Amino acid sequence: MHIILNTALTLASFFFMELVAWFTHKYVMHGFLWSLHKDHHHTHQSFFEHNDYFFLLFAIPSCLLLVSGALGGFDFRYWLGLGIALYGLTYFIIHDLFIHQRIKSISQINITYLKAIKRAHEAHHQPWVKNQGTCFGLLFFPWKYYTAAKRD
Q1: Given 1, 18, 60, 134, which is the most exposed site by the fewest CB atoms within 10 A?
Q2: What does each C-alpha distance from 11 to 16, 25, 60, 106 come to in angstroms?
Q3: Whole-angstrom distance, CA of residue 93 vs CA of residue 60
């Protein structure tokens, strides 16, 4: 029974993070912390961006939950922290490696869902300004991007 509950907690926190990421991206990154996020919307030559500091915004709670949950006998906090960490890993792989091609070879993957994610993210980057844009999440996006990616 514990494995079902732990798996459910991990999956719930993973998918909840998509909502947290959407909200944070729209209202924090494109809001009062635009100064840290704006370099992500412009071409630059360096590997790192000011935007990379947002990694800490999500990594710190995950680490705290993982450690405190492990010290508490692998209670619910551990599994919530694991879901957050897995979302962070997924975000890094899809967003940084696949979409923004921080490692070039991974960008050649030909999976319709991933191509749709990339199209939605490209639409997000079109205005390149603070108060405009669409598709603030990562894993969920309007269906039109999936149908367009299917035609590719």
Answers
A1: 1
A2: 8, 21, 19, 25
A3: 19
The DSSP code for 24 is I
Q: What is the DSSP letter of 19?
A: H
Those residues with Cβ within 8 angstroms of residue 133's Cβ, 6 or more apart along the chain or in another chain: 30, 124, 125, 126, 127
Q: How far is Cα 43 from Cα 111, in angstroms, rounded to an integer?
A: 26
In tens, the pLDDT along 48-63 reads 777 778 888 889 999 9
| Distance of alpha carbon 79 from alpha carbon 65, whole angstroms | 8
Q: What is the pTM of this model?
A: 0.85
Say if residues 59 and 87 touch (Cβ distance below 8 Å). no
Closest CA to 121 of 21, 44, 31: 21
Rounded to whole angstroms, how far apart are CA atoms 80 and 102? Answer: 28
- Give the contacts of 145 (CB within 8 A, at least 6 positions apart): 116, 117, 119, 120, 123, 135
Report the percent of the chain where pLDDT is more than 90. 34
Taking Cα atoms as reference points, which of 135, 143, 145, 101 lies closest to residue 30? 135
